[in-house]
């Protein structure tokens, strides 16, 4: 299977703990995106990378959130000092940059529950 | 700011009939539009897209229509099948991608 994969699929943590999620994009894709989705809403953009460079960050991405893509392949999203409001589905997507073809393909998501 | 809106949270159609899902957007700078389908406990699956230079794109049972003057996008599924039952998200892109809140489609046998 050469789709986008995410790990873990589910994470339950206590408020104040740190969590880290991993995303492995489709291998030939140079762009990688992180989104957050809450119940009844569409995915909300958090940040994206082109190769290893983080090119854009949403204002939703507070200073407790940090994302890395050190070698331009997999990416990690870390949330420090988690809050109950961080409970959501965290989605990763990847794409191959091209004119009119920047279609993003999503992974299955990591569902975070903060108790 | 809700730049992409799907005003119908749900839609129910009979198997074999046409399903029409609608989407409105406010930002005229969007240049690429997509529809995704989502099943429970899975990530969104890409369905079909359209560039702003076109007004129609067809792929099998799925057709997307773009009306730039009205800032309106629609997805037609014909004929609808029970397996099409899912939540459908429209998305619009310039630099980053904005999603609507989704429409839950139920196709009844």
How would you describe what is shown here?
- With 115 residues, chain A is mainly beta.
- Helix content of chain A is 0%, strand content 49%.
- Chain A has no helices and eleven strands.
- In chain A, a hairpin with a 6-residue loop joins strand 7 (65-68) and strand 8 (75-79).
- Chain A is globular, with a radius of gyration of 13 Å.
- Chain B has 109 residues and is an all-beta fold.
- Chain B is 0% helix and 56% strand.
- Chain B has no helices and eleven strands.
- Chain B has strands at residues 4-5, 10-14, 19-25, 32-38, 45-51, 56-59, 62-67, 72-77, 86-93, 97-99, 103-108.
- In chain B, strands 2, 4, 5, 9, 10 and 11 form a six-stranded mixed β-sheet that branches.
- In chain B, a hairpin with a 2-residue loop joins strand 6 (56-59) and strand 7 (62-67).
- Chain B is globular.
- The model of chain B has no long low-confidence stretch (mean pLDDT 95).
- At the A-B interface, strand 5 and strand 10 of A face strand 4, strand 5, strand 9 and strand 10 of B.
Largest sheet of chain B: 6 strands, mixed
Taking all residues together, what is the mean pLDDT of chain A?
91
Largest sheet of chain A: 7 strands, mixed
Given the helix and strand composition of chain A, which structural class is it? mainly beta
Structural class of chain B: mainly beta
Shape of chain B from CA axes? globular
Summarize model confidence as the mean pLDDT of chain B: 95
Beta-strand percentage range of chain B: over 45%
Q: What oligomeric state best describes the polypeptide chains here?
A: heterodimer
